[in-house]
């Protein structure tokens, strides 16, 4: 059941990306980091329940996957991920990422409280296996729905 749910989440992220820039990627040397941030109400109830995600218009979900550019097929990598979310008023909220494994796929999920029309800057430190690391910074405006 969980592989099906993960496929649904991945498809959902791809479908809404033209509307909200849901999935993006960044090259960090030999790493290819895919990331997305979206309002948790976009996650179907069954998927949210399976992964312990709180569906609320005041809750955002951050999803990160790390791939190895040096390997054919770009296998997923394990990593230690930490970071924070900061709004324009300077309020900083820590992000606590949890690892999700589905077959060969590895994802890191974190949730953060948001307000309507809140502009949030995410500062995320990635330390992937093989002593490879990098810093991911991106900004997103969230809208309650």
From TrEMBL:
InterPro entries: DUF4426. Keywords: Signal. Residues 26-144 form the DUF4426 domain. Pfam families: DUF4426. It comes from the Bacteria. Residues 1-22 form the signal peptide. The keyword Transcription does not apply. This is DUF4426 domain-containing protein. It comes from Enterovibrio norvegicus FF-454. The lineage of its organism: Bacteria, Pseudomonadati, Pseudomonadota, Gammaproteobacteria, Vibrionales.
């Amino acid at each position: 059941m969980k592989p099906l749910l993960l496929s649904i989440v991945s498809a959902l992220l791809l479908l809404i990306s033209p509307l909200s820039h849901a999935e993006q990627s960044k090259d960090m040397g030999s790493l290819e980091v895919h990331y997305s941030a979206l309002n948790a109400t976009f996650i179907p109830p069954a998927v949210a329940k399976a992964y312990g995600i709180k569906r609320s218009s005041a809750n955002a979900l951050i999803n990160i996957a790390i791939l190895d550019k040096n390997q054919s097929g770009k296998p997923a990598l394990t990593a230690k991920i930490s970071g924070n979310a900061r709004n324009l008023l300077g309020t900083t909220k820590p992000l606590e990422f949890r690892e999700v494994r589905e077959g060969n796929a590895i994802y890191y999920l974190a949730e953060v409280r948001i307000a309507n029309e809140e502009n949030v800057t995410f500062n995320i430190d990635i330390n992937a296996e093989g002593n490879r690391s990098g810093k991911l910074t991106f900004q997103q405006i969230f809208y309650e729905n």
